[in-house]
Amino acid sequence: MNPSLSNVELVDKCFPSTRRDHVVGYGGGIKARDLRSPAITKAELVEKLAQSEQERQALQDDNQVLHEENRKVNNRMSRMEEEWAQMKKYMSANYSQPDSPGSAVSTWTLKNIVYS
Predict the structure, then answer these.
(1) N or C: which end of the chain has fewer CB within 10 A?
(2) Which DSSP string do the residues of 17-68 spell out, in sequence order?
(3) Taking the CB of residue 3, how many other CB atoms lie within 10 A of it?
(4) Residues 6+ positions from 1 with CB-CB distance below 8 Å
(5) pLDDT digits over 77-89, tens only?
(6) Burial of 61 (0-12, 13-18, 19+ CB in 10 A)
(7) pTM for the full model?
(8) Cα dist from 39 to 34, 44, 52, 79, 116, whole Å
C-alpha cells in the first residue's frame, strides 16, 4: 500500500466495483433489502386479511341495521304526513264557517294554525 494515497483513493483501490445495491461502510455493507421494511410472512398476511374481512362484515351489518332504521323512520314520517293532511282537511271542513259571532275568533285562529 502506498501511504501517500488519500482516503478516497484508498477506498477506490480497495473496492473497485461500484454496485448500486450495495453500500460500503466501515467493516461491511448495507444492502437495499436491509433498508426496506421487514418482510411480512404469509401467515401475517392471512391474519390481516381475516381481520379486515371481519371488520368489513361488521361494517356491512351496521350499514344494514342503519338502512332498516332509515326505512322505518321514513315510513313513520309518511304516515305522520298523511295524518297531518287528513287533520288539515278535517279542520278546514269543520271550522271554515263561523257558527256564531263569538266563535269567529276561534275559527280564525284555527285556520291560521292549520294553514301555517
Answers:
(1) C
(2) ---TTEEEETTEEEEHHHHSPPPPPHHHHHHHHHHHHHHHHHHHHHHHHHHH
(3) 5
(4) 10
(5) 999 999 999 999 9
(6) exposed
(7) 0.43
(8) 10, 10, 20, 60, 69
